[in-house]
Amino acid sequence: MKIEILSPFFKCQEEQTVFLSHFYSLPDYKSLVTTEARFQLRLKSTADPAVFQQVKDICDNWNTSCKVVD
Question: Is the whole-model pTM more than 0.90?
């Protein structure tokens, strides 16, 4: 599963590190790629649908959005 996440505004590098660490800790995490003002999060193909809800909750907490693209 590939999820596209719009990058929120970060005041400093530490904020970005904290934001990204939430995705690295997901149980089905595979990779995270930065492209322009977006992040592409890849999860294992067997990812539990509940994981997308976790991603959405993280994005909501940072006032940004996400969508499944693959």
Answer: no
Kindly report the length of the chain: 70
In our burial notation (b when 16+ CB lie closer than 10 A, e otherwise), range 6-42 reads eebeeeeeeebeebbeebeebebeeeeeeeeeebebb
Q: What is the CATH number of the domain that holds 16?
A: 3.30.70.100
How many CA within 13 A on the CB side of residue 48? Answer: 7
pLDDT at 23: 95
Range of the structural domain that residue 13 is part of: 2-68
- Residue owning tokens 């990779």: 31
User: How much is the pLDDT for 31?
Assistant: 96
Coil/strand/helix, residue 42: strand
